Input
Amino acid sequence: MKVKIDIECTPAEARAFFGLPDVTPLNEQMVAEMSRRMGANMEALDPEALMKNWMTMGGEWQKQMLDLMNQAAGSASRK
Output
């Protein structure tokens, strides 16, 4: 025996039927805040600024890696 029930309703009606909260105001607030933050950080997406940041970090990471390798080589040669 098969029983098939088709119910047509909007997402808001389904949420109300199941007793779920309406999160529309929270969602709108989150989208507005994300838009504000993205707009404030658009200058960080400038290719020149990205390369400057990456090169600065890359050089620092390279120095830290060399220091770490030198420390490891120094401790290995003492053993």
Residues 10-40 form one domain.
